[in-house]
Structure formats: C-alpha cells, structure tokens
Amino acid sequence: MNEPIWYKSWPDELPKSLKPYPEIPIFKFLEESARQYPDRTAIKFMGKTYTFQEIYDDAQSLSASFSDMGIGKGDIVALLLPNTPQFVISYYAILMTGATVTMCSPLHSEREMIHQLNDSGSETLITINLKRLFKLVDKIKSKTKLKRIIVSKFHTALPTLKGFLFKLFKRSEIAKIDWNREDIYSFEDLLDNENPPPNVIIKPKEDMAHLAYTGGTTGLPKGAVITHYNATCNVLQTKYWIAPAFGHEIPDKLSIEKFPQEDNPITLVVVPWFHAMGTIAYLNFPICSATTMIVLPRFEPVQWMEMLKKEDVEAVGGAPTLFIKILGHEKFPEYEKYFESLKLIGSGAGPLAKEHLKKLNEISSGVVMEAYGMTEVSMGCVYNPCTNDGVRKVGSVGIPFYDSYAKIVDLETGKKEMPIGEKGEVTMKGPQVMQGYWNKPKETEKVLRDGWMYSGDIGYMDEDGYIFLVDRKKDMIKHSGYNIYPRNLEEVLYEHPDVKEAAVIGIPDPEKIEIPKAYVVLKEGATVSKSELLDFVHQHVAKYEKIRELEFVDEVPMSETGKILRRKLREKEGINK
Asked: Which of 9, 453, 454, 525 has the maximum number of C-beta atoms within 10 A of its C-beta?
C-alpha cells in the first residue's frame, strides 16, 4: 500500500502513528492527574481556584449520589450548564457511574431542548439556578421524560465575597426554586456523600460516553454516538499533535502515567464545553495533561484580553468568530502586545478568513493552527502542523493527523476519488469516528460508508496532502450552470476595511436558478455604501460570481460555536433548501 500523500508534509519529529491507543474510560484522565498533581490548580473561575484533587473528590462524591439515585449504565444524563466548575464535576461524575453525557446548549430554544431531551430519552438533567435556564427546563419538563432536575447554585462557584455580592445585586437573574419539590435535587447537597463511588466496568470500545448532538446548521440536531475509546483517541491525537508547540515530547508508548505534564502551560478557556471542540480540546485535553484552565463562563472581548494581561496564558483557541471580534475590537491595540507570548492559537469550527489569519501570525510568535473536524469524528481529524518549521498553508485546515485518513470524493455518488486539486466531498476515517447517529440507521447509512465519514463539506486536497475547504455541500449556489461557493465571496468581503461580519447565501431566481445575496455587518463608524462595496467585490471575482443583492444588517446569525447559520438567513428569505 502506498504511503498517504500527506506523509511528505509530516513533521520529522513526530511518529506516523500513536497505536495502540489505551482502552480506558475518559474519567481516568482526571483520576491520573489528581494522583500525580493533587494540589495543582485545575480551574480558575472568576477568582476562585479548584485543584485537581478537589475536582476529583467532588466528582466521586457526586457519582456516589447518582448511583444512590439509580443512575448508571444505560442512562443518559443531560447537562444544561455554562462553562463552570459544576460542569466539570458533573461531566466526570456521570461517566464514573457508567452513564452517558448529553450536553445541551444554554442558548437552546424550547423546541431544541424538547427535541434533544426526548430524542436522547434523558430522565435526569443538571442545570444551574440562573433564571433563564431553570425557567426553560421547568417550562418544558412536562413535554419530556425528565424525572429529576438537579440544580446547582451559581454563587457557590465564586469566591465568598463575589458569591455574596452576586446574591445581593443579581437577584433578578436568580431563579426562585421550590426545593421541597420531589423532582428537584440540590447539586451542593449531592456533593455531601461519603459513600464510595460505584464500581462500574466500562468497555471503552462499546460503551457510549457522549451522545453529542450536531450543530443543527441545516435542521434539527442528530445525536452522534461517541464511545469512551472514540473520545480518548481524539484527546490523545490532539495532545500529541500540538505537543511541539509547547516543547513536549511524544512517548514511545501511550501509557496513562505519562499523560500529565510536569510543566503547566496555562490555557484560557471560553469555547463552550457543551460543544465537541470544547469537550475534547478545552476540557479533556487540559485535564489529561494536568494543565490549569482559566475559565470564562461566556465570551466578552475585553474580559478575554484582560486574562492575557493578568495571567501567564500560553494557549488560547476558539471559532473564527472569536478572533473576528477580538481583532476588530476598538481596544485591541491596547492588548496586542500580550499575544506575543502565546505558544499556541487554535482555530476550529470553520475556516479563518485569510486577513484574520495573517494578522494573528503577525502579532504572535507562537503557532497559529487551524484545524478541521466535526461532532461525528469526536472533534478533530485534520490539523495543521504545530512544529516551528511546519508548513501551514494559508487557506488550508491542514493534513490528516495521527492514524486518520481523508479523501475527496465526487459530489454525485461519493464513490469516485477526485484527482489532486479537484473539488469534491471531504470524507474522513480514523479511530475517533462515531459509531453512528442515535436511533437513526438510515441517516447513519448516508454518512458512514465502510468506516468513512462523509462530511457534507466541499473541499480539495493539494499535491502535499493539505486540505482546503470550499463550502458546505448544501450551501453551494447553483447559478446558470456554475457552482458558486459562499465562502469565497465572504473572503473577499472581509478584505474590505469597513466589513466586520459577512455571510452569503443563494436566493431563488427564475432565470439564473440562484443568485448570491450578501448580508454584511459594518464596523462602527464605517461609511461605505452598498454600491461601493459591491464594486469592491466585483473587482475580485469572476463575472458569474458577482453578488446580485446586498443587505446591511446588525448581526449575522451564528451558532454557539461561531458557525454561520445560513439556514436562518434562508428562513428569513422564505427559502426551504
């Protein structure tokens, strides 16, 4: 068998494979880090610190309480929490019982919450006493199979004074809860359990750890079945691919006692943990490596940049939207110098615009790494090299990393592999690929063929094995026999100095089939007119690619992870695609 084409671009200091991967439950990452570095800070949250031992002890106590309640193997427990210490404790406690975690977005609508809870069959949900979240759960409970609602008090995650002030001045944000209700349990009370955690036998290759729902950019989300083995492989693939950025070595054999790092490269975490990128790269990876996380419950640009100033942060990451908002913020020049010391800037969930990638490379001496994956592959499959001399091609999301494969197939049948440089559907294969969609065999058959995950993304591979994404298959605009890719037009729009955000969709046209329409958010104080902006774009694109309609808007609809929700724009136009 010929070597994959991307091996010619493989960093010299990295092995071609990490096999065999350890068959362990995910919670062993936390257990081992707590054993080796019990007093090291695992989480800094709003000024309060939590050591690895404290997180592990709380997770064990909570898992014992869950077991006492009858929660165990075969159960699916829902998490509806922002990034807080309670999320981390709950996540590992659920897994310790042998149950499965399904993570819900705090931004879910009633419809989306009802769908996920009913589709997963969850009978237990863990949330927090913030009014918006508790009211949502309480309102929809009768339309679901929920039997138990476990509620944490937000102020307990804060330092004593901050917690007191929160209760005093943020009363309007705190839900009034009847703690005497039989279906409501106090999270903090459940932590007070001295019983030993359950002794559960986990079969990593068979037992489901995550029921991870897709982003729903094209409709209602589907649950991807991710086993302990799938997730463990992806954490370790990520850990040892980016190791060179921190000067870490790759062991000859993967053994759990080698996972925690002696040094402690601090990571600033704002990527939501309920999303695949957050769960794998910004929760399990730091826990596995025993590195400290500075955790923000939500993204606010100035607060995020303040953390770079105050803390010895070495790694940051997020979706392209995060970097758009940072680089375009009026106070960015005040904080620009603090990017210099970052060793790793990671971007995923969508391609970075070339202008933003260029700027990040200018302001940081570390590695700026774009990566690509999806919920259905646990998180990631294609990464740019993280070695100092590694080639990171502008516009490319990288090459398939450890024990992963990718190929480009024709859009019509998905059976013909496309020649180098020609566009088609991106497919991926590796130990991190999901087992299938939950209770959806027909949907699974469409996307999983002989172990290959059909992504629905259009892209091409160059002569060095680098993958370039063009667009989503469903977003491609069909115009008079031509294929127009919205991302190409968005790239050109971002090159204009007055453009803050941009999105393009195809709208129906009786003569041309579809025509491109752009939605643009201008920077504050911008004066460019529609005609001037269209003229700018048309100087840089082919005649058939010209944007035919343009609308200035206050915001472009985005998912929680920064992906453009083009279906929302299509709904606005009354288009069903």
From this structure: 453
Q: Mean of the per-residue pLDDT values for the chain?
A: 91
Bridge partner residues of 417 (DSSP): 409
β-pairing verdict for 48-51 and 399-400: unpaired
Whether the predicted pLDDT of 328 surpasses 90: no
Amino acid code (one letter) for 552: F
Two tokens, residue 385: 């090299």
> In the numeric block, which tokens belong to residue 462?
């160059």
The residue that leads in pLDDT, 51 or 483, is 51
Could you tell me if 319 and 349 are in contact, meaning their C-beta atoms sit under 8 angstroms apart? yes
Please answer whether residues 537 and 434 qualify as being in contact, where contact means their C-beta atoms are separated by less than 8 angstroms.
no
3-state secondary structure 355-379: HHHHHHHHHCCCEEEEEEECHHHCC
The model's confidence at residue 562, banded by pLDDT at 50, 70 and 90, is low
Q: What is the pLDDT of residues 96-133, one digit of tens each?
A: 999 999 999 888 888 889 999 999 999 999 999 999 99
- And the tokens for 217? 């950019």
Predicted confidence (pLDDT) per residue in 159-212, tens digit: 776 666 666 557 778 899 999 999 999 999 999 999 988 999 999 999 999 999
Does an H or E element contain 304, and which?
Answer: helix 301-310
Kindly report the backbone phi and psi dihedral angles of residue 393, in degrees, each rounded to the nearest multiple of 5, phi listed first.
Answer: -80, 135
Q: Do domains 5-20+224-472 and 28-201 have the same CATH topology?
A: yes
Q: How far apart are CA 493 and CA 488, in angstroms?
A: 9
Which architecture characterizes domain 28-201 according to CATH? 3-Layer(aba) Sandwich (3.40)
| pLDDT confidence bin for 216, thresholds 50/70/90 | low
| C-alpha pair distances (Å), 31 with each of 22, 57, 200, 259, 417 | 15, 9, 15, 11, 44
Question: Of 74, 86, 121, 108, which Cα lies nearest the Cα of 223?
Answer: 121
Tokens encoding 307: 């953390």
| Tokens matching residue 6 | 């991307």
Half-sphere exposure of 155 (CA within 13 A, CB side): 15
225's CB contacts (< 8 A; 6+ apart) are 208, 211, 434, 435, 436, 437, 438
The whole-angstrom separation of Cα 175 and Cα 384 is 45
Instruction: List the CATH code of the domain at 5-20+224-472.
Output: 3.40.50.12780
**Domain-wise residue ranges, the chain:** 5-20+224-472, 28-201, 476-572
Architecture of domain 476-572: 2-Layer Sandwich (3.30)
**Token pair listed for 433:** 């690929």
Alpha-helical (H) ranges within 460-572 are 486-494, 530-538, 566-572
- Is the distance from CB of 488 to CB of 547 less than 8 angstroms? no
Beta strand 344-347 with 399-400: parallel, antiparallel or unpaired? unpaired
Q: How far apart are CA 426 and CA 414, in angstroms?
A: 10
pTM: 0.85
Alpha-helical runs (H) found in 69-180: 85-96, 110-120, 131-140, 160-169
